Amino acid sequence: MNTFLDHQNWRYATKKFDATKKISTEDLNFLKEAIRLSSSSYGLQPYKIIIVENPEIRAQIQPVAWGQSQIVEASHLIVFANRTSIEENEIEDFFKNISNTRGIPTDALDGYKGFLKGNITKLSDEAVNIWNSKQTYLAMGNLLNAAAELKIDVTPMEGFEPAKVNEILGLDKLGLNASLLATLGYRHEEDATQHQKKVRKSNEELFITL
């Protein structure tokens, strides 16, 4: 079987982590690079990735994340926090990065810049916030796949109170909103969930070919 599919069959949403096992710096850097290289609309990456190692902060987050034990037991907690808006200076910085990285004169990018600004400025604040939040799911996908390659367990989480996490981490002051959580580490041998068969729809139920 294709190695990628082997990894997908191996992974699951871990319910109990082994708190004694920690992710190495080398592996964490690999996962960070996988997140950094994730696709996003226009390549803007309108989010920040907060890696929470501090046990006291994680203990504060646990009650507002439905009391899930993974928050404090896992090796690392990652918060995907989307930008609540996209300011003009962020777009300018994006195009400066393109110019510097690819060696393209900034004025050669004016047409694309105008197109991008025009598309974003016509969106409401709510639409921008939702759009930015969606980009974090693409980054989460890269994390899940990269972690499975290293046999590192990841539990993606939407079960938490964003406003409370924002308050604990001071994200509001940074123009950020907690969109997704992910706990990373190694499954505990007592986690019975790892032995359950993966439940998915069949090809016939899932796919439509036109």
UniProtKB/TrEMBL annotation:
SUPFAM superfamilies: FMN-dependent nitroreductase-like (SSF55469). The keyword Oxidoreductase applies. Keywords: Flavoprotein, FMN, NADP, Oxidoreductase. Residues 10-186 form the Nitroreductase domain. Its cofactor is FMN. GO terms for molecular function: oxidoreductase activity. It comes from the Bacteria. InterPro entries: NfsB-like, Nitroreductase, Nitroreductase-like. Belongs to the nitroreductase family. PANTHER family: NAD(P)H NITROREDUCTASE YDGI-RELATED (PTHR43673), NITROREDUCTASE (PTHR43673:SF2). This is NAD(P)H-dependent oxidoreductase. It comes from Flavobacterium cellulosilyticum.
